[in-house]
Amino acid sequence: MTEHTDSQFRIERDSMGDRQIASSVYYGIQTLRAIENFPISGIKPLYTYVDAGLIIKKATAIVNGELNCIPQDISQAIVQATDEILAGKFRDQFVVDVYQAGAGTSHHMNINEVLANRALEILGEEKGNYKRVSPNDHVNYGQSTNDVIPTAIRIGGLLALSKTLHPAIDSAIASLENKAVEFQDIVKSGRTHLQDAVPVRLGENFQAWAQILTEHQNRIYTASGDLMVLGLGGSAAGTGLNTHPLYRARVVEVLSKLIETPLEPAPHLMAAMQSMAPFVNVSGALRNLAQDLVKISHDLRLMDSGPKTGLKEIQLPPVQPGSSIMPGKYNPVMAEMTSMVCFQVMGYDSAIALAAQAGQLELNVMMPLIAYNLIHSIEILGNTIAALTERCIEGITANQERCLAYAEGSLALVTALNTHIGYLNAAAVAKESLETGKSLRQIVLERGLMNEAELATVLNLEQMSAILPLSRESKQID
Question: Domain Fumarate lyase N-terminal, which positions (predicted)?
Fold first, then answer.
């Protein structure tokens, strides 16, 4: 209910009493109470999460209108209101802190109130006239926070993956593969335990990273399949109370069309409401990706270390001055940023795991935390990978001479001699080389262990660093 005192304010009423609300705002009394109750972080809901809720409200309005559960004009006004906001209007009206009432009731009512008040304007009514369009009785018909919010997390996750993370990974893979081709003929020293190892191709380093990201992309696709199974229609406790018999299947069908993703109703609505396992699964896949991204970013920093006192096998593109006091210094800032974001994603994953096990009986009341952490993780990972690709990977150049010098000077070259002179002889040669500074080739010849022709063949760096192809016979082994 609402009363108007003057042009600047209206009075809205809920079960707890009356409150004065600015006439200009589209949210209502329950949102106002949440603003007052939760002045916690100043962090407002993510756009993608808001979009997910709006798309759900659009689908439910369409279906409830088709099923004559709400009047057709109200259904159409709600749909128009959602389309306007999805197009960019009224974004400042979603104001509830991400740390809020358990299960997400405050955020949910924020959406319901904004849509109701905008629908009222579309119908030529004043904001707050909830007898005409109610946030609860019309916008929220047949719904509950308890089935809408877990569905919004699913939809928000799918939107963030398709718009942000998957395209970024695809671009990173393509860029790494291009560098793999560009650097394929450059031989460098391998390193294990940060010590000299047998020679490898610089291009294969980049191809390995591309393969790692490809495998993570596949894991995330697999995990995100869980997000396509919706408990929408479960209403308050998973029983479907106050919903039309055809609503559950129809609303999932409409949602599938709206986000162009194949969705399906959950086989047991109560289970879909209670378990946060799908979000834990996706978050775990994100954490797994983040861990390897940290490794890759650290590799880039090591290989670029220097310029005079480090490895300097590659040059990362300088994007900004690196010191406030040391002139001419450039730092691997894109790789450093990547690690920081990945650490944050790992932290979010831990919080999601704790929140997911904190449900009781018919509901998990920690969903606002899960919603923010999961969708934010997806988006910052996607933005990070995109920035790393564009401002770092694509501009990497190789120091071929430095790479070759390290490869030729590595004591690990002695490994290639094992099958020709035996492990113990090879170890003795390596020890003498380290102690005297003589080359492996010189010591082997002096000891009469091999002749010049044999050494030339065995110590061929190009051949030694080439990855052996998988033989046809190996592929046929079960």
Answer: 19-347
244 in a structural domain: no
CA dihedral sign of residues 195, 197, 203, 204:
negative
Least confident of 5-14, 69-78, 124-133, 308-317: 5-14
Exposure letters 257-286 (e unless 16+ CB within 10 A, then b): ebbebebebbeebeebbbbbebbbbbbbbb
**143 touches 360 (CB < 8 A):** no
Residue 263 lies in a domain: no
* Residue scoring higher pLDDT (473 or 84): 84
For residue 127, how many other CB atoms are within 10 A of its CB? 25
Average pLDDT over residues 42-64: 98
Q: With respect to residue 170, please indicate whether it lies within any of the assigned structural domains.
A: yes
Which positions ≥6 away from 432 have C-beta within 8 Å? 438, 443
Domain ends where: 91, 124, 141? Answer: 141
* Type and span of the H or E element at 212: helix 202-224
Residues 88 and 214 both lie in one domain: no
Q: Which residue has the higher pLDDT, 437 or 335?
A: 335
Same domain membership, residue 120 and residue 28: yes
Is residue 311 domain-shared with residue 202, that is, in the same domain?
yes
Count of domains for the chain: 3
Are 357 and 443 within one domain?
Answer: no
At 468 the pLDDT is 74
**Residue 217 and residue 296 in one domain:** yes
CATH of the domain at 186: 1.20.200.10
Q: Provide the H-helix boundaries in 276-413.
A: 277-303, 333-356, 367-391, 400-409
pTM of the model: 0.92
pLDDT band at 474 (very low <50, low <70, confident <90, very high): low
Residues 417 and 289 in one domain: no
Q: What is the pLDDT of residue 328?
A: 83
Q: How many CA atoms lie within 13 A of 195 on its CB side?
A: 4
Are 373 and 416 found together in one domain? Answer: no
CB 107 within 8 A of CB 45: yes
Q: What is the Rg, in whole angstroms, of the alpha carbon atoms belonging to the chain?
A: 30
Active site residue 433: no
Q: Are 381 and 395 found together in one domain?
A: yes
Q: Which two tokens stand for residue 28?
A: 């209502």
CATH at residue 448:
1.10.40.30
Pair type for strands 264-265 and 229-230: parallel
- Full residue range of the structural domain in which residue 417 is found: 410-460
User: Which residue out of 162, 323, 433, 474 is catalytically annotated?
Assistant: 323
Sign of CA dihedral 463, 468, 472, 473: positive
Half-sphere exposure of 317 (CA within 13 A, CB side): 11
Whether the per-residue pLDDT at 5 is higher than 70: the answer is no
